[in-house]
Amino acid sequence: MFSKEEAAQLRKLFWTSFGKSFPRKWLLYNTKIKGFAFKFVADRKKAMVCLDIDHPEAIANELLFDQMISLKVLLETELPEVIFNDAYELESGKIIHRIYVPFDKKFSIYNKDTWRDCYEFYMETMPKFELFFYEYEDFINQAI
Question: In what side-by-side order are the strands of the sheet with 95-102?
Fold first, then answer.
């Protein structure tokens, strides 16, 4: 088991190593749609590439998620393993809409032996997600 400091150092090393090994400017929060952001997730037990919908206005939040649901079949063509969750609970307890692709291999941010496969998963999956967004950005924006 790691101390809090050691765990924090490993998490920091994971992300800096990813950035150095695979330098690229990611879309992430720059979607220009409030409450609509792409994220990389990595923790003790799992890794995933996500699209989080968490608009501060409840109606806009639902409209954005519904718009993505209407594109589900098209997104599944690019990412067959994508999961749509309309009530994803974050560690903080907050409930959001999350559309994500889980990393299907054994992973822990605290096990350096699992990092390389995860990085490759990120590099393969996020560009597909981003491309999909760019292709349907205008349609998604119509929701709000």
Answer: 36-42, 47-53, 95-102, 83-89
For 142, residues 6+ apart whose C-beta sits below 8 A from its C-beta are 67
Are 98 and 85 in contact by the 8 Å Cβ rule? The answer is yes
Q: In sequence order, what are the residues at sequence separation of 6 or more whose Cβ sits closer than 8 angstroms to the Cβ of residue 131?
A: 78
- Answer for the pair 143, 66: CB distance below 8 angstroms, yes or no: yes
pTM: predicted TM-score of the whole model, two decimal places: 0.94
Torsion sign across C-alpha atoms 102, 107, 108, 110 = negative
pLDDT tens by residue, 19-47 = 999 999 999 999 999 999 999 999 999 99
Beta-bridge partner residues of 52: 37, 98
Q: What is the pLDDT of residue 139?
A: 97
